[in-house]
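For the sake of transparency, this paper describes our internal protein records without simplification. The remainder of this section carries one protein's record, kept here as part of the documentation:
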Amino acid sequence: MYTFSSKLKTFSFVLMLVGVLGIGYGFLTAPKTIQDVETILKAEEAHHEGATAHHEVEKHDAKAVAEHKEHVAHVFQQLQNKPWAALYVACIFCMLIAMGALAFYAIQQVAQAGWSPVLFRVMQGVTSYLLPGSIIFFVILILSGLHFNHLFAWLQEGVTTPGNEHYDKMIAGKSGYLNFPFWIIRAVIFLSGWNLYRYLSRKNCLAQDEATDNTFYKKNFKMSAGFLVFFIVSESIMSWDWIMSVDPHWFSTLFGWYVFASFFVSGITTIQLVTIYLKSKGYLENVNSSHIHDLSKFMFGISVFWTYLWFSQFMLIWYSNIPEEVTYFKTRIDHFNITFFGAFVLNFIFPILLLINTDFKRIYWIIVMAGIIILFGHYVDFFNMIMPATVGEQWFIGIPEIASILFFLGLFIFVVFTALTKAPLVPKRNPFIEESKHFHY
């Protein structure tokens, strides 16, 4: 049985405490009034030569005054969104890491893989974060619907009402799908379905340890096959609902696969890092370099798959040059140039350099380095997906962003390693457990 070390537990609590303080600071320092934004903008203008004189001239132009007020209101909304967006990005990313691990676990069950059963408890440990992550995420969705933030433009009051100053014809045309009741019902179905499978598959796996036949294993096989069908559908719709809809005018038929590749490789990478940590502490004696090598191959392969989707989506939209599509990439290249192309470097160039060599796939320090880069790179990927529409050009990596990452990282560590203490780290009666223990190539 695994014992959660006091040092690691304390470390997780410290991360959560620092995270909470930083998140609170982000909300407290966000502008509360239009006057606060005016002060911020004037301070920025003071850095530019002649900006004050230019501002004075424009005050006498009614059109310029109206445009200035509209700009200030827009910046006010973006700066108010900043702590919310930072929290949202970290929350959904960590939750989907657990989801990626769950999908990988289900695939192993359906494939009746002989190499991976010795890793099942690690996979189940990583997926244990799905429940608390889902609860926090659902609360954020509810608060968005109650207008505590402006993360989703289509939730704004009057946006579907003709004649209203906020009316948007394109969003109004999608209101049959993008409306709060239907949106939140879909969220309940998806989150409940994912967590139900996670709970029942774990329960059956533990029951199989004490069983005299393979009844519970067969139940898991059938349930996993059904879950993967549900997952493919729900994951695509989830990517539209929770990520693409922050840009309600934009659409991409490739987006569901793109999001999947990002959190799937993150989930596999997390399984690898937890496995290596447990090995370093003397656990998982049946896990050998061949298991580590196979996980590294998945890290490498899905990184290449993500890059294929990244390029395909970009190239097709660039080539077609349709205004409502190219605006997505124009915004990111104009205002998020560093993070947009940085994600490509982090998620493709580094994994290629570090993991393409077969021998490197078995060397722990190289794998850990690659894993940290991959996880950071895909956080940046989610940052790129959400921040441009919610924060715009007012973005920067500050205390709210760092604190949100620290809080959810601390919570993730605490939940996952607590779950690992609840059962033996090696399944006893899985039909393929002996094959897995002696897996070598």
